[in-house]
Amino acid sequence: MAKPGATGVTRIINATGYSMKGLKSAWINEAAFRQELVLVLLLMPLACWLGDSLNEILLLIVISWLVVIVEVLNSAVEAVVDRIGSEHHELSGRAKDLGSAAVFIALALNGLVWGALIGRNLLGWW
């Protein structure tokens, strides 16, 4: 059964407000989010310059924003785990480690894509 609440445009407005609150919280409380967001914003013009086609430009932009998205989700997991309690628990540690691994994989994938396009478009490797 669905929860009672706002519908239509009101729901969209409320959801947008919650999202802005979440982004503000990430900016204030998460140094990694700030660093990755600033890096992504700096990379956007570089993506437009480096990409030879719209597909390449979009690939660089999307893969860069993926890191920020995964970081936000990792921060959400960490907040929930910390809310549950500060005592050490194997599952809490596993949840945090898995979130961190997700960020690592997103960063590695980002580096791979950027590196491949730099290698091809700037260095002529293949």
Automatic annotation (TrEMBL):
Keywords: ATP-binding, Cell inner membrane, Cell membrane, Kinase, Lipid biosynthesis, Lipid metabolism, Magnesium, Membrane, Metal-binding, Nucleotide-binding, Phospholipid biosynthesis, Phospholipid metabolism, Transferase, Transmembrane, Transmembrane helix. It is an enzyme of class 2 (transferase). The active site is at 71 (proton acceptor). Mn(2+), Zn(2+), Cd(2+) and Co(2+) support activity to lesser extents. The chain crosses the membrane at residues 31-51, 57-77, 98-118. The keyword Hydrolase does not apply. A divalent metal cation binds at residues 30, 78. One of its GO terms (biological process) is phosphatidic acid biosynthetic process. GO terms for molecular function: ATP binding; ATP-dependent diacylglycerol kinase activity; metal ion binding. Its cofactor is Mg(2+). ATP binds at residues 11, 18, 30, 78, 87-89, 96-97. It comes from the Bacteria. Gene3D superfamilies: 1.10.287.3610. It catalyses: a 1,2-diacyl-sn-glycerol + ATP = a 1,2-diacyl-sn-glycero-3-phosphate + ADP + H(+). GO terms for cellular component: plasma membrane. It is found in: Cell inner membrane. Catalyzes the ATP-dependent phosphorylation of sn-l,2-diacylglycerol (DAG) to phosphatidic acid. Involved in the recycling of diacylglycerol produced as a by-product during membrane-derived oligosaccharide (MDO) biosynthesis. This is Diacylglycerol kinase. It comes from Aeromonas lusitana. The lineage of its organism: Bacteria, Pseudomonadati, Pseudomonadota, Gammaproteobacteria, Aeromonadales.
